[in-house]
Structure formats: C-alpha cells, structure tokens
Amino acid sequence: MFNDMTLPWKAIFTGILCLTQFTRISAFNLDAHNVLRKDGEAGTLFGFSVALHRQLKPADRRMLLIGAPRAKALSNQGANITGGLYSCEITALSNDCKRIVFDNEVDMKSEYKEDQWMGVTVDSQGPGGKIVTCAHRYQRRLFVNTPQESRDITGRCYVLSEDLSIDALSDEDGGNWKFCEGRARGHERFGSCQQGLSATFTKDYHYVVFGAPGAYNWKGIANNTLLDQGIYDDGPYEVGDESQLNPDLVPVPANSYLGVLFMTTLSDASPDQFVYKSYPLQVNLEKALDVVANSYLGFSLDTGYNITKKGQLTVVSGAPRANHSGAVVLFKKEVTVSNMLSAEYILEGPGLASSFGYDVAVVDLNKDGWQDIVVGAPQFFLKDGEIGGAVYVYINQMGKWDQVNPIQLNGSKDSMFGLAVENIGDINQDSFSDIAVGAPYDEGGAGRVYIYHGSVSGILTKPAQVILKGVDLNIKLFGYSLSGNMDLDRNSYPDLAVGSLSDAVFVSRPVISIKKDVKIIPKQIDLTKKTCGNNICLTVEACFTYTENSKSYSPKLTIAYLLEAESERRKLGMPSRVTFLTKSRTDQDFQSSGTLELQRPNKKLCTTAQLRLQDNIKDKLRSIPVELSVSIQGTRRKKRQSSLPDLVPILNSNQPNKVGTEVNFLKEGCGIDNICQSNLEVEYKFCYREPNQDVFPALPSENGMPVISLSDQKDIALEVTVKNMNGDDAHEARLVAQFPSSLSFSAFRFLKTGVSLDKHVICVANQNGSQADCDLGNPFKRNSETTFYIILSTAGISLNTTEVDIGLQLETTSEQENLSLVKAKAKVVIELLLSVTGVAKPSQVFFGGDVKGESAMKSEEEIGSLINYEFRIINLGKPLKSFGTASLNIQWPKENAVGKWLLYLVRISTSGLEEIPCYPERNGLCSSSMSRRKREAEEEKESSWSFEMIVFFFFFFLFLQSCNNGARCVEIKCPLQGLDSNAVIVLRSRLWNSTFLEFSYLGRRGGAVGWTGSCSPVGLGFKSHLGCLVMDWRPVLGVSPPGLTPCVAG
C-alpha cells in the first residue's frame, strides 16, 4: 500500500468550490486589457504549473513554459495519460503552444508512466540556464508479471537545456534525476518518495533542489545537488543526511508533506557519488522543533542567500501538514561534517488545518539586503468569519527569525487565497520587489490574482492591483500557479504568468511618474477690484513634467488633464463660487480639460485657464480650491494580432492622483495672519408687544425667571442682542432660533444699534414656524452690535404648558470655539379674566319678636327675615371650556359656635347661558330631623375641580369673626361649566330670628360677604382676586317683640 499523493490535489479540485465575496480594486501596471491568453486541451490541467524562460543561444527567445500533468501520452510512452510540458511563444495568439517532446520511451519491466503527472512542476534556471520539470507519480516496477510484483511511487525529474532539448553530451540533461530509486523501499523509507512535487534552482544557479514529501512515512525530505559544471566536490545534500539516510534527522513529523529535500549540483546526476559522514542534529533544536510523520516536507521550495546569515545559502521548504497546521523549515547545508541539510528555524503554522507552507517565496521586500519570506496558508479560516486563506509575510530581522511577527494578508471566504505566492520582481520600478498571490477559488471558483508592492516598511498591505478575474475570461481556477520576475516583451519591466488550468500571461506596462504643479494668479481675491469687466477673474496655471524609471524608455507622451474647482463643496450640495471661462464643450462650469504632448522626460510644459468669480457669493472666508488630475492618453487594440501590442504606459500608483492649490479672499477685518477669529455673543430678554404698535416692554420676572402671564394676549416677543466685541469680522454670521411646540414664529422687527451695518437683520422661518434663521451680516463687523425682536405666537400654549424653552445658536464661518447653544427660558401662567360681584337684597334687615324653637316652626316665614344673596360672574376672556371646568365655592355660615342657626338657606337658583347646579341645594324644614352625623357628612363632601373661586362671609360679632373663628360653615359649590360670558347665582335665605334675639344683648350686629380667587394646578390664575359685599342687621329698638318683626331692607 502507498499513500496516493494526488489526494491533496483532489481535495483542491473537488472539495473547495464555494461562492465568495470580493472587493473591486483599481489596476496598476499589469495590463489587464492586452492579456496574452494561451489555451490548452481540455482536461489536461494545462497551466497547473508555469515558468517564464529566456533562451540566449543560439538565438534570444523568450517563452512561457506550461505544465499539463494530465496531457495524453506520447507515442512511445506505453500509457494513455502521462502529462507533459508545453512551450508557448510570446505572441497574441492563444493556440500556438507546442508540446516539448522528451521522456518518449518506456521500459515496462522496470517503470510505469500511466498517470505519472509529468509537468506537475516546472522551473527555469534563468536567462540561458537549464529547465527542470518533474513527474512526482512516476513508478518503479519490480518483479513484473510475478506474484511478487510491486510498484514504488518514487517520482522522477528531467533537466533540459536552455533550447528545450536534451543534450546527449551533457551529464546534467535527461531523466536520471531520481535520487529515491535504489534506496530502501516501503512508505516508511523511500517507497513512496514522490520526488519532484516541488523543484527549483538556487538563486546563484549553483544547485538544483528537489522535494520528496512522501519519504520517511511522508515526513518528506529535500535534496540539494550541485548544478554548475566543473565542480565535483560539493554535495549532494539531503535532509536526513544523504549518506546516512536517517529519518530521525528529518526535523518534521510524519505526514507533514515535507518529505525529502535533496540538493545537488548539476555537474553530476549521481546522488551517491560523494559520501560524507554525518552526525545526528543536536544543535538548533531550540530553534527548529522536531516535525513528525505525515508532515509533507518538500511540498514547496525556494532558496536564497542572506536569510539566516549574510552570504549563506538557505533552503526554505514548506511542510503543510506538520503538526496538523503546517510549518516552514529553514535549512542550511552542513559542508564540513556531512552531506546533510540541517534545520535552523521552523516557522510554525497559525491555525489547525490551515495548510501553512503550501507555497513559499523568498523576496527582499524592503531592500535592506536581507531576504524576507512569504508563506501561503490557503485553508486558513476563522469560525463564523469571512476569511478564506491567508498569506504570512515574514520581514527578516537580520537573520533572527524567532523575533519576527508576521504580517497577515487575508483572502475572502472560500477563495483559497495563498495557494500560490510568487516573487514577481519590481513590476513598478520603484526599487522594491513585489509579490503576487493567487486565490483560485475566489468568485465562485473563477479565481483572482492580487498584487502587493514592497516598500521600505516591508509590504503595503492594501493590494496594488487585482489584475484580472477568471470570470472575465470565462475560465476556472485562475491564479492556481504563478511565475514572474522576467521581462517577456522587452520593455524593461518584469511580467507575470498566471496559471489557471487555461493559461494567461500578463505583461507589465511602463510606469510613468508625472510631476503636476498648479497655481492661481493672483494669490488673493480683492473683492473691491474688478479685473475683467464688472467681474473678478483669476488665472490657473498647470505645469507637467514626466519621468520614467527605465532609462531605456523615453516616448512622446500624450496626457489628458482636468482642472476642477471646489469638488468638496459640490459634494455637500453647494454651488461652486467660480466658473471656468476656458473649457471644452463637454466640461461643466466648474471644469476645464485638455490634452498636451510631452516630448521627452524631464521637459516641462504648462497651460493656463481663466476662472471667474460668481456674483453675490456668501462664503467670502473659505478659500477656493482647484484640483489638477492627469491621465495618459492611448488607444487600445481592438483586434487580436500575432504580434504584441504597444503597451500604453501607466501612471505610478504611488503618486497622488490629484494635486491642488487654493486662493484666499483678502480679509480686511481679520488678523495679520489672515485668519478671522470672531467673538460673537448673544443676549436675550422676553417682552410683550403693545397692541398695534412696535413697543416691547419687558415681562415681569419671578425668582429671576421671566413670567409669561396669558389672558387674551396672542403674541410675545424675544429681544435678541448680538455683539462682536474685541474680535475679528464674523463671516456668514447668523443666529438660528429653535422654538418649542407651544410657540411659533410670527414676525421679526429690526432695531439697529451700535456700529452701522450694511443691511438690516433678516429672519426667515421654516414652514411650520418651529425655527427661524436670522442673517446677521456677511461679515458681521468687528465691534458691531445689533438688536432685533422675534415675535412669537402663543396659540400653541395649553393648560399643560408651564414653561417655554427657546434655543439660540450663533454660527459663523470665522474661527470661534465658544459658540454653544444658549437656552432662553420663561415661566408660563394662564390668567383667567373672571369678575365676580355680589349684592345682598335687602342690604339691611331687622329682627324681633319672641324666641321660637325649631320644632315649633311650621312655615318658612316663621324663620326670620328674607335675604337674597346675588352673585354675578362675568368672563372677559376665553371660554372656560378651553381650559377645563371651574367652580364658585361659597362658605355659608350655617350655625354659630353653640349650634344655633344663623342663616337658613332656602333655595339656590341660577340664570345665564347655562344652568349652574349648586350643591348642597338647600336645608328645608323637612330635613330638620336629619341626624347630625349625616348632615356633617354631606357638608364635608368634596369635589375635584381644576380651579376654584372661594366666597366667604365675615361676621362682625364679637364672638364670631369668620368661618375659621367660631362659625360653623357649610361649603356650597357651584360648577361653572363652560362659562362663556356671564351667569348669576341667587341664594334665597332666612335670618334665623330666634338666634339673634337670644344674643340681642350684644348690640348692633353686622356682616360682610367677601370672595377671593385661587387656582390649581400651577400655571392658572385670576385677574381679580378679592371682592366684598357688606350688609347689616339689627333688632327693632325699644320693642320687645312678641312675634316676628317686619324687616326693612337698607
């Protein structure tokens, strides 16, 4: 049994096809319009691997090498599907790729090539160098056609010459690169070696490095072999020691997908030519933790110098299954003691099953001379998150990798962001190397490629470009493989090849830096000086100079420029204060555009445009900005041709898109720094308005708060005084007044005081009168003062209104920090215009005769003299139903202190617009037997009313001063239900003759009826508070009355 190394690939192709989210990002200099697309046969996985290659001999050719590991077999391979390698010319044709013929033979007794996946990886040594390509599923056969027949998936690699041929005279060329062959079999050793899943050349072209992730129970190894000819004493080097083949020296777990790393020179292909004694790795164990089985060491490879030490070669290999999360191991070759690659550092994966180390790239991003490391983790995710893959950028800290905190770049959900990472060179020629990141499952499996620029800080985390989306090309898995850092179209810019199992090549466009300058003449606007007729005009001058990073490129450049005024102001919905007089037919009033031809680099060219100031502008404080933007003109090819199109240069994305300038107004009332710092203050006073005249006396106050007493008054006024003392001019000065729902704007009156203003204050209210905007002047001059009145309607005040709160906010475009909201508050009292008058008929009565008990009386007349008390209530204001209900409460002196009758109430009658029911209605003789408790209970009944008017009697007996001083009184309540105008209440009563006879020794008696007004709840009051009627009663002098004595009204 053997571990089928296609399983991880199958998982990629069948298990990660999900919809994703994406963000649009503008392109930079990889030309996404003139894409060189190369198509292969369906089902061959054409584009699974890609490499850019340059041949120098016998002719200078640049080409694209594409692996198709499921391509059909050649005629002599004895199989159906073997895979292959294709060469594509750099043309606009999509179908001009040709298969490179090699490996076209088979020995069926010792090998098996069906489904070997030739082309699973391909790499170029560089201009004029070798090419390596591998078939990691190549099988060795033993004991063919016998019961003991077995097969080992050892893998195999081919090295080709620069012209894509196999030189028979070269020991390096050919397919003898199979270092696992002839070694101990079985999956725990080299029986499932799978050499060639990754392969690369070192940056100095000295070695070729192979990954064999299936070795040692899928621990994996790396093998480093000398490549340069003429060197016979260097290597090969291998993880686990090439001479010992010791799995315990492989510093990753089994099933890590690191396997064997084998590094050797290309001077001899025999891995066993040199044997050196090695020792178990005991150093650096603190830096490089052991990695166990199934780590897949060797799954990805890259190399570089100055990674852990200056001048030292380091092999960087990914083990995407190490410790179930992945790892990247940094190896060095042990030259003096062994043929071993020993681990110096291990970069550990961040999350479970993230496949950290699936691909790696070595690149100096910040140009500090130390190589940085980029690691793909395409299956990284966060629970309930939108992340689908990540790339970790390790910025080298002078070889101290244990001190590095990586920068994490995240992809969109289910995108497999980081499946491929590539050093693509300096594509924008800013002297910093850049990287490309493939996300082949982005956008529902169509795929995308992201470009990130290097910088002095390491890497710019915002993508400079999403060069293309697979959905635009109607292809899948775009970005599955990447290859760059070579100039294909001879414009001095490195280009990028993107494998998508349907390949495409992106060529880099020349990067142009255009210096843009803009200025306005004159530097200040003097509103008193007309410069063009009756208007004020300005001149805008724009100048351009271009530079190109590649010294060999200096074309004539046609640029389009655009001048634009007050863009931010217009975004806020406000009109521009200026109009361009120099403009094209398609330009709007605030724009001026045109084209210029720059003849060569570093030659300055200028143009001008006229600008006119609009009439009657309000904002004379803020400067007027003008922005200048530029683009490069060019035509795009409409028809595919075999030759490459001329690429239109592109602007440097690291430069700002726009530059700007501004012109200020000449400000006379401002400081020497040309900044206006105003000192606005507001004061207020509540007033009432005299009828039919603009006279505004101040309202009275209570405890320091103004009191609005409402009767029939409809309007009040708020006196507002605004000052600008000891400050600069206040430009666009205004006051915004906000009113509560109980008040609404009615009108305003202006009173000019202090320094003369250019114009009166103008107040404009909104539709419902809840806010007024008062223009104070533009500018409101320094040391100015103005007073005006805002007249407010009180129609919205109701019974529940106890106070009003008006907000006053000063605003200006001048500088002032203390412009806080001022609250103008006043207390509200509703005043009822009720008048009560009373009369007693007759005003004088007499008593006399004999004392007679209550039980002996048979008729009303026997009680005593008749007295009618008449109360007239007059309402001079609003109907009471507007506020609620009211009542007239009368304190009736029924008995004296010893329980004797005083005034006996016979009947209550009313007249007016509505009948007024009073209670208790009367006494009546028939109720004399009523118990004292029941009568007192009736007298103590209370009723709840909104407000009351109390009438009471004063008896000027020596023994009886009032109801609260001896007399026993009963309260008579007369509700004033919706009283509109007036009503009369008449109380018919009898003076209790016997009681006054019994106390006749006291002499003359008299009494008075008085009333006052009180209100409830707070906020209601009466216009008239006190009234009084006087009457007097006396005995008939000199008569000892035997009976009832007639009374005479006086």
From TrEMBL:
Coiled coil: none annotated. Signal peptide: none annotated. GO terms for biological process: cell adhesion mediated by integrin; cell-cell adhesion; cell-matrix adhesion; integrin-mediated signaling pathway; leukocyte migration. It is a single-pass type I membrane protein. The keyword Metal-binding does not apply. It is found in: Membrane. InterPro entries: FG-GAP (IPR013517), Int_alpha_beta-p (IPR013519), Integrin_alpha (IPR000413), Integrin_alpha_Ig-like_1 (IPR013649), Integrin_alpha_Ig-like_2 (IPR048285), Integrin_alpha_Ig-like_3 (IPR048286), Integrin_alpha_N (IPR028994), Integrin_dom_sf (IPR032695). FG-GAP repeats lie at residues 282-340, 342-403, 405-461, 465-523. Gene3D superfamilies: Integrin alpha, N-terminal (2.130.10.130), Integrin domains. Chain A, domain 2 (2.60.40.1460), ntegrin, alpha v. Chain A, domain 3 (2.60.40.1510), ntegrin, alpha v. Chain A, domain 4 (2.60.40.1530). Residues 670-828 form the Integrin alpha second immunoglobulin-like domain. SUPFAM superfamilies: Integrin alpha N-terminal domain, Integrin domains. Keywords: Cell adhesion, Glycoprotein, Integrin, Membrane, Receptor, Repeat, Signal, Transmembrane, Transmembrane helix. One of its GO terms (cellular component) is integrin complex. Its main location: membrane. Transmembrane segments: none annotated. Pfam families: FG-GAP (PF01839), Integrin_A_Ig_1 (PF08441), Integrin_A_Ig_2 (PF20805), Integrin_A_Ig_3 (PF20806). Residues 834-998 form the Integrin alpha third immunoglobulin-like domain. Residues 508-668 form the Integrin alpha first immunoglubulin-like domain. GO terms for molecular function: integrin binding. Belongs to the integrin alpha chain family. This is Integrin subunit alpha 6. It comes from Scleropages formosus.
